[in-house]
Batch of 3 targets.
Target 1
Amino acid sequence: MSSHKLIILSFLLLLLLLLPRASADCVGGHDDGQAVRRNHTEALRYKLASIGSVLCAGAVGVSLPILGRRFEVLRPENDVFFMIKAFAAGVILATGFVHILPDAFRSLSSPCLGEDPWGKFPFAGFVAMMAAIGTLVVDTVATSFYKSTHFDKPKLVDEEASGDGHDGHVHVHTHSTHGHAHGAAAAAPSLDMSVSDLVRQRIISQVLEVGIVVHSVIIGVSLGASESVETIKPLLAALSFHQFFEGMGLGGCISQAKFKSVTTTIMMMFFSVTTPIGIAVGIGISSIYEENSPKALIVEGILNSASAGILVYMALVDLLAADFMNPRMQSNVRLQLGAHVSLLLGAGSMSFLAKWT
């Protein structure tokens, strides 16, 4: 999966580097040279500050749920973890619906694009819908494949569940029937369910990271390429908040997936550095990049639409539905209330900040 994400990132950056300048009727004029240079210098300071701020926010956010396994209050089996995850899911949901999807509609309905076909069909909504369906297909096929792979190998199931070939093996004698049963065999259905849940969490965390990464690159490049201090200032604060809580949502999924330490570290680092790398690339191409050029609008609009579809699907199906339908939450009214409040707070906070981004 990591190689796939690197391919997506490289392809996106290549497209952005090849974007031509916009036509004259889609780009506003510039001030005098001195004012432009002064604004460029001040904007560059804020861009460099944003790289450090967003990097720290993302790293802390994605690390908390994983490192928090050492603290009882932040462990996945604790009630507080459900509420933190609900808040983060609300942030991700609002990011898709309120922030990314409207941006995609604006890009693909821009007057800089021709009326035919962009003005005659809602491509943003269509691409978002197809991305959500595609995510469902990937989710289903990948889960089925990994389930069949694991369940065809009883030894792997035993190792995942017990960590030792003998720990899960218990002899049970039933004297009334003179039967002889093995605990490991009797426990096979529960072990299968345990591995099934583990595989499911791993797929969720990987697909979620792909959706977040696509959007992170786009917003990072947009910030890095901008020369307006008035645009960069609010983006800096909003992106830091955004990265922190998206990181918490992703970190929670990674924590529950129980990856090996190397895989966990790679996923954490990849999430943390994606937006800063996007900002750095934006700074590097700011002299040739024009956000209103037709190709830039089309690439950004399509990728934003796809990202929105992925994030909305993941937030609703894999994060919220999975947790809110959990038997533990269904039997605890106080936990349900807390999770609902956390969800609304997360969605409301990101919706409020969307106007700055």
Target 2
Amino acid sequence: MVKGGLLLLNLSCTALQITGSTPDTSSASTPSCTPAGKMASSDAGAAGACEAVKIELLPFIRVYRSGRVERLLGTATVPASLDAATGVASRDVAIDPATGVSVRLYLPPAATSSGRGGNNKLPVLVYFHGGGFMVESAASPTYHRYLNALASRAGVLAVSVEYRRAPEHPLPAAYDDSWAALAWAVAGCESYSSNPWLSAHGDKSRVFLAGDSAGANIAHNVAARVAAQGLPTPGAAAIVGVLLVHPYFWDASNAMGPELETRIRGEWRFTWARPEAQVDDPRLCPTCAPGAAPRLAALPCERVMVAVAGEDFLAAKGRAYYAALLASGWRGEAELVDTPGQGHVFHLLRPWTEAAAEMLDRVAAFIDRA
């Protein structure tokens, strides 16, 4: 059984019909309807209760012709709390009332002890959740559990970003929100900041960007924006590393097969709400768009880790990114973590496994070297 929205792109699409842009509406529960928009037999007397479906990407999302959006997976949330298993405390902070963008902060027990050389500042990890830009959230049980474990294991102050999602907020909203979250996090590390966790414990000279699947796509694109524009907050802030776990990329090859290649094209256009959105856009295809090598060579960090899983159809795309980065002339240190016999985001879906524990160790070791 698929758990949450994390296996987005890992299953074939039952129905994908894109007939135009989608109105800006909030998600809600749906009456009992068939995919064709006909009333279910149990609702035969409820005239008008059922809406016609405009777009359907099963088993993840459904958009009705009224503009209403129904997320079929990844909707469960848990509150911020003190995690008994790890001792990590979390809290939610709204950073932009105009857009509703927020973050969930994770403070590990290591924050109360002295760090290297008596410095109690911790690396700051800005994390972007996956879900194809459409489902899941920073408050989902899966991501809450993972960020608690990672903050504890790596001794890092984590900033998990709640960005706006398609189709109500088409791309580039998720990119812009993630950029705003990075700016907020870096500014929060200043001594004058009103955020006590970041100002007391966040080291802006040791910032990491990380994400899985679509979140890894966001992490790369935020890093590319830093390369082009500089960090949004001046000073001694620095991106030390970028972690891309099972990244949602395109590389212009046919490694996926025609059905999945077609689906990627359709989903990319759907998340942009533009039928003309192209898959050679550098935000989706950092290895194949014109000027790819110079953009990769300019990544503003010392180290990059790319993780792929042997049974994940996106693995070829991640390997292509790693190879292109090495060939670009980038002067940093790149690491490829290739886990055979595992599927997309296995470490999130089966956190109790040995493979997931090893992945957590690899990620923590990458951060701990800062």
Target 3
Amino acid sequence: MDVQVEKERGNEENEGGQRTSIFSPQLKAMMRIKKKYLKRSNSVKLAVGSVASDPKSPQTRKPKRRKSRVLFPNDTLIKPKKDERSRAKPFLVLFSVIVFVQVYNAIENLDDHVMKYDLEGLERAMHREVFGQPEALEELMDHLNDYLSTYAHQHPLALSLHGASGVGKSHLGRLLVRHFRSVVEDKLVVHYLSKHHCPLKEAAQHCASALARRITEVVTRAEEEEQIPFFILDDVELMPPPLLDILQTFLQSDQTNEFLNVVYVFLSSLGQSEITAHVLQNASTAGAHKPLRRALSLIHPLWTEPALELIPLSLLEREHIIQCFLEEMTLEGFYPDLSHVERLADELAYHSVAGRQYAKTGCKQVVGKVNQL
């Protein structure tokens, strides 16, 4: 319509402007207003289009869709769908079950190994028959429990017990021999006495060879029966150097597996002066390991082996000597008169330190005095 109006208007002007327009002034005004409106609307559309093309414009951002979360009361029968549950929970439960079963089996295996050797019975017997050595017995049992709880080892267990005369070393060795012979085969427990098996120093090399053969035979038999053999060696201070050399070779970690599953217990009075001085100064054997190892390393390199554990035995106090008298008198059939026992205990020599009395010879003289009754 606008184009047609413009053409007619132009024709009127070309004819010399003599003719008058066919449109009234009101219609012309309405046409001009419409033209301005159309022009303004077109400009607004262009502006909106430019804004919409800008990616940073807030009008172009799509509103985030919030996930609806439905909460169900505890007593409702409506349950969430299975696909909405976490898939990690079943795997976590399965993993927990596997770990529990493995730990349980490991604990059961440890208990089976320890129960086989009846270490609880051994501990009760030692605390009942060995007087005045709670620290040494506790340390001894800790090592035995740790080692005998499994069959595969990186090195043999070597325990070297040291103490002064009369503190119970030999008695402790006999208890160990008696107990382990009752729980394993008798031939897998060797009680080696230096005075008996190698009395002559001239035959030291022959004794060393015989001991090496004996250890090899017992260890080989124990490997066939899947058991751990025990060697209790008493009076080690009397062993000549060739015997100590042989024992040192069996404590190495680069041996075959059967020689790594062995328990050695050495009983010796070596280092008794260092232990005595330490106990008189500290009233305990705690901390005596370092001076004891330092003194023993000067005697033979056997006691420098990392696989060898030192256990010092304490001095016996007067009350322990009284217990020794009561035990010995009961075994000999004497009535244990306490006043008589105290009088016999007073006849022994003691170290008196800080109100305590430590027997110089331990229970060594108890048997002789009871035999004189």
